[in-house]
Known about the structure:
With 126 residues, this protein is mainly beta. It is 0% helix and 50% strand. The protein contains no helices and eleven strands. The strands form three sheets. It has a four-stranded antiparallel beta sheet, with no helix packed on it.
Amino acid sequence: MLHGHADFVWGIAFSPDGRLLVSGGRDGTLRLWNVQDGQSIHVLEGHTHDVYGLAISADSQFLVSTGEDQTVRLWHLQSGRNLKTLRGYTGGIHDLSLRSDGKILASSGQNEMIQVWRLQPDGNLS
């Protein structure tokens, strides 16, 4: 069992190689875990409300998260740094999906729309 969140855990996602697991929850944090030993690698802070949607890029360099704070956030997985915060939703963002090649991200939320983003090689979303 992995312990660390202060409240409900809403979302989880494995890295493509299965070595890492990311979790997000009501406490507004994301936690990156080493699956083999159960150790927490990073605690990522930036969301101001519940974290729901999570995805790790195919090369395991980037993490994308969504939440009740109406943002999509792009993180550098190794450093835990928030690279970019995207806004544009008028309600919470509850889910996301990253295409298998890691180049296209789709997010959905309370405002009845699906937003499609392109993940650039430098880690930017457009």
